[in-house]
Write a structure and sequence with these properties.
Elements lengths: L2 H7 L2 H10 L12 H13 L4 H9 L20 H14 L4 H6 L10 H25 L4 H14 L4 H22 L3
Helix pairs in contact: 2-4, 3-4, 3-7, 3-9, 4-5, 4-7, 5-7, 7-8, 7-9
């Protein structure tokens, strides 16, 4: 484990999201919500993202939706750049939602901040992976729409299918390594 990864796991940001997601799982898949954060951090490691991008990624679910914003506490962040990245992520991601993929006339737009674009790569890669593994089967009615949504985001972010497969492979391999440490054979 890199020093940066260890630092992030010991951060106030990681503690805040761990507390927020404590014991919570997705209804459809029964996967702990923390898996999204952990695997997203693996992707950010592979992308050599800044520490601030990684810390902001930990906090992004706490401010993503409109109803979350009044409860978002900026003291969850260790510095103002992390708060800025969380708010810019929120701004960028909410301009292109799955419903926008349906009509085909709108496309995602990049952030002017590199850190936020790397957060988006990690988020959309991890979420697409889970969609392909679990929801495509359990939610076939939305499968075509969500497939287009994720592919549109990754295309705009410059992530090729080969790069997507490499990032998902990295996420899954690291997750298995971590599980092996917890449950050795």
């Amino acid at each position: 484990m890199s020093d940066v990864h260890s630092y992030v796991l010991g951060s106030v940001e990681f503690a805040a999201i761990t507390d927020h997601y404590s014991g919570k799982k997705a209804k459809r898949t029964n996967i702990p919500y923390m898996q999204h954060i952990i695997e997203g951090l693996y992707a950010l490691d592979a992308l050599d993202a800044s520490v601030d991008a990684r810390l902001a990624f930990c906090l992004h679910p706490l401010a993503e939706r409109d109803e979350d914003l009044p409860r978002f506490n900026p003291l969850y962040a260790s510095n103002p750049t992390v708060v800025m990245n969380v708010m810019e992520y929120r701004n960028t991601v909410n301009r292109y939602l799955p419903a926008h993929a349906e009509d085909g006339t709108r496309r995602p737009h990049l952030s002017p901040l590199r850190d936020v674009n790397l957060m988006l790569i990690a988020d959309k890669t991890q979420t697409r992976k889970d969609f392909e593994l679990f929801q495509q089967v359990t939610n076939p009615a939305n499968a075509r729409l969500l497939d287009a949504y994720f592919k549109n985001w990754l295309r705009v972010l410059g992530v090729t299918e080969d790069r997507y497969r490499a990032l998902t492979s990295e996420m899954m391999e690291r997750a298995l390594q971590d599980l092996a440490k917890v449950w050795p054979t």
